[in-house]
Every structure is written in structure tokens, then in C-alpha cells.
């Protein structure tokens, strides 16, 4: 029996970029770029300090050997050995950091509840969003009712999985160009739900050119960090990506902990603020819809 097709196979054809473009999703940055506030935000996330692991495979005396050992290994090995040093598990961190308990992670899990931009549903190597249990009962049912009004399907723009709502971080492992395409797809799916929510309460201007998602692509030695944001003109929304930092962790002169610190700062600083922003929009949703719909 042949093994199942790898999830990245459909993205190996560079023509997927044109497929994205037809759907209003772009691998590149918009000509006008991010807003000034958003630029200051990601710079702060890159620069803010975080405690680092005391001993790891990134230590100077072993990182060279580590890079050589994993050079020809598969993604499972990279996820086991390298990914925790780039984007640590938020579920594991929450054991000692209860303030992270409102977050929810997925590991190589199909976002089966999502509405894909193209014909495929995302399946990031690692993803983070908000736990369904983080919302109040009223918020949960108001948001569910809102998206039920605009979607006639079992999937929802606000969901990734039954446990994860409004995903906002994606990590993909593999050839960098390929992983970037996967991340763009993942985050475009994720951003649509937020834009539709804010459009539903006439507050879409608040998310125009603002960062609504982050992603990391890495292989056996290189890491790239990107931000994702919508550009909204009336009823039309396009989604863009900007690569904000890259490094080769096999280079002795690089800051190989840049992605780790950045991801920890996302968990500690940006994600709570993003969650509060989403909850604020949900709170503005009506309790009852015209025609009798209510939560």
C-alpha cells in the first residue's frame, strides 16, 4: 500500500501563487505596506527579551553537530528537535504559565472546521488560536449565531477545529518557498474570520492594514518570520504577507534565539491583546437578528 500524499504536494507547483492571487491572497507585501502602528508592533515583538532554555541543541558547542545530523532528516525529526527551539508549545508553556490557558494549539491537524481560501483546508505543522472555552457563554453563542447567519455550511470562518477559534499563528516545516505558500494559505483562511466579524459590526477600519496573523517557515537550518494583514476597500478584502526577519541558525554569528523570543512575545503580549480586540467586536454583535435569529 502506498503512503498517503504529503500535505505539501499541492503547493509544490509555483502556479499556486496565481491561484492565490485570483482569490485576493498575495505572497508579497501591499504597495502601501503596513500601518505605522503595526510596524512598531512587530519590531517590539522581535526585540523584547524572554528567558531562554538553559541547555538545548542550539548551544554553541553542539549546534553545528545538530545541523549536520538533521540535514537529511524528515519533518518529524525537525519538529521534534528544532521546532520547540523556534516556536515552543503553548500547551506545555501553559503548565507553568496559567495566563496562557486561553490559547489552543494544533499539531499537524487538519483545520477541518475552517473555510479554505482555495479547495484545500489548512494543515499547519503547528498552529495556535483561541480555545473555545476562553469565550464567555454569551460571546460564544453571539459569534456562532453571527457566522451561522452569513454561512450556509458546516464549516465557519471563525473556526480551525472544534476546539480552536480565530487561529492567528501558523508554522510550517520544509523547503522555505513551499512552507511560505502553506503559511500564506493558512493565515489567509484565519484572517477572513476576523475581517468578517469586524465588518459585521461596522468596525472593519480597525483591522485595515493591521497585523492579524503571524507565521514561521523553517527547514534544517533556515528560519523566516512573516506577518499577515488585510487591506480593505469597501466590500473587497485582499490579504498580504511581509517577511520581517530571517536567519540561518547554523551561522555562529546569528541570533539563533530570535524566533523563540518572538514567539514567546506573541503568546505573552500580542495574543492577549488580539483576543481582547476580537471579544470587543463580538460584544458589539446584536443579541437577536432580524427574522428571529438569536443566540
Describe this structure in words.
It is built from nine helices and six strands, in the order H-H-H-H-H-H-E-E-H-E-H-E-E-E-H. A six-stranded mixed sheet has the order 1-2-3-4-5-6, with helices on both faces. It has helices at residues 16-22, 36-47, 63-70, 75-81, 83-86, 90-96, 137-150, 176-200, 258-283, and strands at residues 103-107, 126-131, 164-173, 213-218, 222-233, 236-248. It is 37% helix and 18% strand. The chain has one domain. The mean pLDDT is 91. It has 295 residues and is of the alpha+beta class. This is DUF7924 domain-containing protein. Residues 64-282 form the DUF7924 domain. InterPro entries: DUF7924.
Tell me briefly what this model is.
37% of the residues lie in helices and 18% in strands. The protein has 295 residues and is α+β, with helices and mostly antiparallel strands.
Set out the fold topology.
Layout: H1 16-22, H2 36-47, H3 63-70, H4 75-81, H5 83-86, H6 90-96, E1 103-107, E2 126-131, H7 137-150, E3 164-173, H8 176-200, E4 213-218, E5 222-233, E6 236-248, H9 258-283
Parallel strand pairs: 3-4
Antiparallel strand pairs: 1-2, 2-3, 4-5, 5-6
Amino acid at each position: 500500500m502506498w503512503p498517503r500524499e504529503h500535505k505539501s504536494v499541492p503547493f509544490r507547483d509555483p502556479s499556486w501563487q496565481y491561484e492565490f492571487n485570483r482569490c485576493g491572497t498575495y505572497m508579497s507585501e501591499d504597495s502601501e505596506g503596513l500601518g505605522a502602528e503595526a510596524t512598531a508592533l512587530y519590531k517590539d515583538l522581535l526585540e523584547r527579551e524572554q528567558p531562554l532554555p538553559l541547555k538545548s541543541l542550539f548551544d554553541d558547542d553542539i549546534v553545528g553537530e545538530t545541523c549536520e545530523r538533521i540535514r537529511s532528516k524528515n519533518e518529524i525529526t525537525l519538529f521534534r528537535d528544532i521546532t520547540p527551539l523556534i516556536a515552543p508549545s503553548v500547551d506545555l508553556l501553559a503548565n507553568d504559565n496559567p495566563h496562557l490557558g486561553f490559547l489552543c494549539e494544533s499539531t499537524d491537524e487538519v483545520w477541518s472546521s475552517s473555510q479554505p481560501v482555495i479547495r484545500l483546508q489548512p494543515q499547519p505543522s503547528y498552529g495556535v488560536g483561541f480555545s473555545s472555552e476562553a469565550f464567555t457563554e454569551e460571546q460564544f453563542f453571539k459569534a456562532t449565531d453571527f457566522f451561522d447567519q452569513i454561512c450556509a455550511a458546516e464549516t465557519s470562518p471563525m473556526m480551525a477545529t472544534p476546539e480552536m477559534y480565530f487561529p492567528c499563528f501558523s508554522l510550517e516545516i520544509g523547503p522555505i518557498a513551499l512552507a511560505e505558500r502553506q503559511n500564506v494559505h493558512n493565515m489567509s483562511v484565519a484572517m477572513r474570520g476576523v475581517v468578517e466579524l469586524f465588518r459585521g459590526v461596522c468596525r472593519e477600519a480597525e483591522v485595515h492594514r493591521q497585523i492579524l496573523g503571524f507565521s514561521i517557515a523553517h527547514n534544517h537550518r533556515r528560519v523566516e518570520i512573516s506577518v499577515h494583514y488585510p487591506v480593505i476597500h469597501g466590500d473587497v478584502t485582499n490579504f498580504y504577507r511581509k517577511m520581517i526577519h530571517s536567519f540561518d541558525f547554523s551561522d555562529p554569528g546569528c541570533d539563533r534565539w530570535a524566533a523563540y523570543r518572538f514567539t514567546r512575545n506573541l503568546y505573552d503580549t500580542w495574543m492577549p491583546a488580539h483576543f481582547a480586540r476580537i471579544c470587543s467586536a463580538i460584544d458589539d454583535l446584536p443579541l437577536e437578528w432580524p427574522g428571529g435569529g438569536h443566540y
